[in-house]
Hints:
By secondary structure, this protein is α/β, with parallel strands linked by helices.
Amino acid sequence: MQFEVPPRLVRYWLDGVSLPAAITDFSGDDPPETSRDGLVKASLLIEAGKIAEVVVGAAPQDGVPHLPGGKRLVLPRLIDIHTHLDKGHVFRRAPNPDGTFFGARETVGRDREAYWTAEDVQARMDFALRSALHHGTGAIRTHLDSIGKQIGISWPVFDEMRSEWHGRIALQAVCLMPIVNVMDNPDEFEKLVATVSRYQGILGAVTFLGEAPDAKLEAALDKMVGVAKTDGLDLDFHVDESNSPDARSLEVIADALIRHKFKGKALAGHCCSLALMSDEDRKRVTGKLAEAGLNVVSLPMCNMYLQDRQAGITPRWRGVAPLHELDSAGVSTMVASDNTRDPFYAYGDLDGVEVFREATRILHFDHSARPWLETLTTRPAAQMRMPEKGRIKVGAAADLVIFSARTMNEFLCRPQTDRLVLINGKAIDAPLPEYAELDGL
Length: 441
Ligand SMILES: [Zn+2]
């Protein structure tokens, strides 16, 4: 039976639910005892939209209504730190011809040129956000293709969507361009930096474009990191999304951040080729990431789709960054959706639960004592400078997702389509949009 929160209730206990200890602050001094999979039986007092108490065990008999949650797992709304809302849901008109990275890049380029008007981008973003809201996502960072005329189209649309979605999903945007543009097209880069600053965005670029790192990459990074320092911008790169032995730009980025003593927040997405380096190389690069404060987000679903794809040949590797090794070395690691129904990834629906379930299987988050739920909650919250999100604690908004599961195994075995999403302690009514809505685009 689906769990319900009566709409008129403003003060109530979620009684005896399972909470993940790694992302919960319990009232009281002693760390509570956890189950084998890191869960604690506890109760949450919800009051005026906020979490007012987090007590271990059953809720006290204090006259406040109790909602019996003995068979439920509760998580904060998840945070998707790497998406492409501007590209999403073009699958019908622009499928990837062969499922490869280069097939994706070419197809997206053509689609962008032909169709990406403000109306088109806005309609697809809105569709994607409604899906994410339904699934229980609380914050999203999106990359925005920022080349030529598209800069003046996508950023204002994004800004409008951010206002419109305020209070439902918190939004953040990163500019995405080939890093060669920084040197080859300095005027456009200058305008782009002004746009990013105006919209409180994040500075980003793709750093591997099929060529080994050279002095030009270093010069471009010097310029980007320098601008980020002066303008107080955070950084977010697409890095080495390839199995090529030439895909070695991650170390060059870490070197640049160290050289400039960069103190903002920096993130590297993908980093696939790091998994294929020798142990010696990987350890050296990983050490530099930790020193530079360059964190890593893996995009496991997209990587499984694009990496190691050759017609007629079964893929031999999973395509993902070595998250266990990075995590051990003190690098903050995360996972996210990446693309949604576009040439870079044909599937997906901006469902953080799907991302975590797939990441568990692809990256072996299971049989591991590490608190991997942080990869979609507290860590992206910190990276996005939204520390009030992604954690169950007193004083935080009661932005929660309630699942029919008592253990992590029960949580991961089913798609959890009957989950209940709360915003400020109230159950939301947000049905999934119908695909037919996109037919006219
Ligand atoms: Zn991406």
